[in-house]
């Protein structure tokens, strides 16, 4: 019953949340590996509590956007959001990259999100590298024993981060200039990143590709904020804003909140204020 559709042997799947220093913040117990991510997240207590507003709902952050006059303003939001891939439910607190787009800002933002989201993939790889039992197979009977081994490895992993000083807050950063746009904003076909090359392929329904002509988006291309709910998104019944005028992330539409994240990133990118975090040097 635990055989996965990707593997010919019995396996268990775990949903894990990490920060950018690979510290494990939460992990589910094991579930049949035949389950997809949309099912697994239903059993992820951390993600579900964030979605319901039971935890971290007092966190306040700001995003930049343009007002009606074109001025850059700061807008406040309450809650948190998690970087995920496109296999999860369309909650506003779980933000995936765009599968397809012909807008350079959306492509650039998705490329960066994919790069940052790989921290969780690295964490899985580090766990398998540190603990041989996770790499060669768990030789015990019963799912309960497997869960105990997995959660113990997660706890030891966090302890080792503390002992090695790798869980300290990053206090440095590396300025990132536009590495595939020229100084004049012109696009160089020979410097297309792999992520953009994948998006240039025929991806099905919309068949949207990156336009290298320098022209604006055509009138037939759908706008992100106008994309309708495909049935996977669970809209909350709560108010969009609190009594203090602060937007509540978990009550927003995923497409709308993602559009705001893209606008925020684009404003900072154009101002050359995007920086890649750097680990503390001992």
Write a brief caption for the model:
By secondary structure, the protein is an alpha/beta fold.
Could you walk me through the main structural features you see in this protein, from its secondary elements to its overall organization?
It is built from seven helices and eleven strands. The protein is of the alpha/beta class and 282 residues long. The N and C termini lie far apart (48 Å). The protein is globular and about 65 Å long.
Please render the helix and strand layout as text.
Blueprint: E1 12-13, E2 16-18, E3 24-27, E4 31-32, H1 37-40, H2 45-52, E5 60-66, E6 72-78, E7 82-83, E8 94-95, H3 104-130, H4 132-136, H5 143-164, E9 172-175, H6 194-199, E10 247-248, H7 254-270, E11 275-278
Parallel strand pairs: 6-10, 7-8
Antiparallel strand pairs: 1-4, 2-3, 5-6, 9-11
Report the total helices.
Answer: 7
- The total of beta strands comes to 11
What is the C-alpha radius of gyration, as a whole number of Å?
A: 21 Å
> Helix/strand-derived class?
alpha/beta
Helix content: 25-40%
How is the biggest beta sheet arranged? 3 strands, mixed
- Mean pLDDT figure: 79
Shape: globular
Oligomerization = single chain
What percent of residues are in strands? 5-15%
Outline the low-pLDDT stretches.
Answer: 178-187, 195-232
Span of the ends, CA to CA: 48 Å
């Amino acid at each position: 019953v635990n055989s996965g559709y990707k593997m010919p042997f019995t396996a268990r799947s775990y949903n894990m949340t990490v920060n950018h220093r690979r510290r494990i913040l939460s992990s589910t117990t094991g579930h049949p590996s035949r389950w997809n991510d949309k099912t697994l997240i239903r059993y992820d207590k951390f993600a579900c509590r964030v979605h319901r507003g039971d935890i971290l709902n007092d966190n306040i952050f700001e995003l930049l956007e343009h007002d009606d006059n074109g001025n850059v303003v700061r807008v406040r939001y309450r809650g948190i959001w998690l970087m995920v891939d496109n296999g999860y439910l369309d909650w506003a607190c779980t933000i995936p990259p765009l599968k397809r787009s012909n807008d350079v800002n959306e492509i650039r933002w998705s490329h960066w999100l994919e790069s940052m989201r790989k921290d969780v993939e690295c964490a899985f790889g580090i766990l398998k590298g540190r603990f041989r039992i996770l790499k060669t197979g768990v030789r015990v009977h019963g799912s309960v024993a497997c869960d105990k081994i997995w959660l113990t490895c997660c706890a030891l992993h966090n302890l080792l981060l503390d002992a090695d000083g790798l869980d300290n807050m990053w206090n440095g950063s590396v300025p990132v200039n536009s590495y595939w746009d020229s100084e004049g904003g012109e696009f160089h076909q020979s410097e297309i990143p792999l992520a953009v090359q994948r998006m240039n392929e025929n991806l099905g329904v919309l068949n949207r590709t990156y336009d290298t002509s320098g022209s604006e988006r055509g009138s037939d291309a759908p706008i992100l904020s106008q994309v309708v709910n495909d049935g996977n998104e669970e809209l909350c019944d709560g108010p969009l804003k609190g009594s203090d005028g602060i937007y509540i992330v978990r009550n927003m539409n995923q497409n709308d909140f993602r559009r705001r994240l893209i606008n925020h990133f684009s404003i900072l990118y154009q101002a050359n204020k995007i920086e890649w975090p750097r680990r503390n040097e001992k």
